[in-house]
Amino acid sequence: MSDPSPGPRLPIRRARSAGGVVVRRRRGRWETLLASRRTRAGALVWGLAKGQVEEGERPEDAALREVREETGVAGRIREPLGEITYWFVWDGERVHKTVSFFLMQAAGGDTSRRDGEMEEVRWFPLDQAVRRAGFKSEREVLERARERSRRVRPSWPRRPRRRPPAPTSRCVSSPRRRGTVPAARSPCGWR
């Protein structure tokens, strides 16, 4: 995007942010999480969770943190979705912001446990979210997420099966149980 001129020369500040497109599969279709916030003019706008990358923080870590804080939902990064850049004016400075986005799998959490920055957080069918997002650049990121989700196995966003916990004791309670060590050879002694 080109530098928005003319006008009085304002100081320029560069900013770096990161965010995520969190997806899940429900009833055979992809859904994604959008959050609404008020603009300075008071308009309600739906968009993606994103926020500032702190000093020394990786963009991936910032994206996970911001998604959790702003939506209440934890995510697992699956792949990068690229960057967007844009300009805006804030408190007498022209800000050139670069935002890195990541495709994330929903991994738990609850939208009621978000911070107060967002007015509402809601799951949308991915196709509807592409149309609902308030900014063109975020619609393009959602479009990339939609295209990539079409190439993914339908089972991808499901949680992996967990193995049962390993036994904490090697002692045998019954020599008749299948797969156990006979009591005479138990590591806990003779029974």
What is this entry, summarized?
This protein is α+β, with helices and mostly antiparallel strands. The chain is 18% helix and 39% strand. The protein contains 3 helices and 7 strands.
Class computed from helices, strands and strand pairing = alpha+beta
- The total strand number stands at 7
Task: Show unreliable segments.
Answer: none
Count of spatially separate domains: 1
Mean pLDDT: 83
Q: Output the CATH class name.
A: Alpha Beta
Describe this structure in words.
The structure is a single chain. This protein is of the alpha+beta class and 191 residues long. It has one domain (12-150): Nucleoside Triphosphate Pyrophosphohydrolase (Alpha-Beta Complex), CATH 3.90.79.10. Helix content is 18%, strand content 39%. Strand 5 and strand 6 form a beta hairpin. Helix 2 runs antiparallel to helix 3. The longest helix has 15 residues, at 136-150. The protein is globular, with a radius of gyration of 24 Å.
List keywords for this structure.
Nucleoside Triphosphate Pyrophosphohydrolase, 7-stranded mixed beta sheet, 3 helices, alpha+beta, 39% strand, 191 residues
